[in-house]
């Protein structure tokens, strides 16, 4: 089976091939060096994919608290049924807070990104934020699964590269 025929993850990451018998797979020095180069290229591709997944995971983890805070705020707003206009404190920046008087409303404006803000009734806003949070958690779980699979492939490829290096060294020593 070639590298392209191997089973892959939904992300398309090919499964690493473990070579049981290095001497049989690379009988000559030229074959060993070609195989070594091939495995080094695959290893660098795996590491590149891992870096991309780690960056995406970090980005999603950084956005999760905002979604949770927004969902909590919408739930709190929808649960308040007092007649008075409540006063609230909100964060403007890291150490600067403001005070605002909230007027009674049945809607909330959500910033959807890309310079787009949409006004939703509380129930719809809560449902949208909950869906976004569920999707975020699902994406994080998928990325974690892909990272575990990818780390296994990196380890397998590193072991193969190490064994190839040892084979090349022993072949050179025998040739002397």
TrEMBL record:
GO annotations of cellular component type: cytoplasm; prefoldin complex
Organism: Tritrichomonas foetus
Protein name per its UniProtKB record: Prefoldin subunit 3
Listed Gene3D superfamilies: 1.10.287.370
Residues forming coiled coils: 122-153
GO-annotated biological processes: microtubule-based process; protein folding; tubulin complex assembly
InterPro entries: PFD3, Prefoldin, Prefoldin_subunit_alpha
GO molecular function: tubulin binding
Family (UniProt): Belongs to the prefoldin subunit alpha family.
Pfam families membership: Prefoldin
Subunit organization: Heterohexamer of two PFD-alpha type and four PFD-beta type subunits.
UniProt-listed PANTHER family: PREFOLDIN SUBUNIT 3 (PTHR12409:SF0)
The protein's role, per its UniProt record: Binds specifically to cytosolic chaperonin (c-CPN) and transfers target proteins to it. Binds to nascent polypeptide chain and promotes folding in an environment in which there are many competing pathways for nonnative proteins.
Keyword terms: Chaperone, Coiled coil
């Amino acid at each position: 089976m070639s590298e392209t025929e191997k089973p892959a993850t939904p992300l398309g990451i090919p499964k690493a091939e473990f070579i049981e018998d290095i001497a049989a797979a690379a009988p000559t020095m030229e074959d060993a060096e070609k195989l070594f180069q091939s495995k080094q290229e695959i290893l660098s591709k795996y590491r590149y994919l891992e870096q991309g997944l780690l960056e995406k995971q970090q980005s999603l983890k950084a956005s999760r608290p905002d979604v949770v805070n927004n969902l909590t705020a919408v739930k709190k707003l929808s649960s308040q049924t007092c007649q008075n206009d409540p006063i609230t404190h909100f964060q403007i920046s890291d150490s600067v807070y403001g005070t605002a008087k909230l007027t009674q409303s049945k809607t909330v404006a959500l910033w959807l990104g890309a310079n787009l803000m949409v006004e939703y009734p509380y129930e719809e806003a809560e449902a949208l934020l909950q869906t976004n949070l569920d999707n975020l958690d699902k994406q994080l779980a998928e990325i974690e699964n892909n990272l575990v699979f990818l780390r296994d492939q990196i380890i397998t490829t590193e072991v193969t590269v190490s064994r190839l290096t040892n084979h090349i060294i022993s072949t050179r020593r025998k040739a002397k």
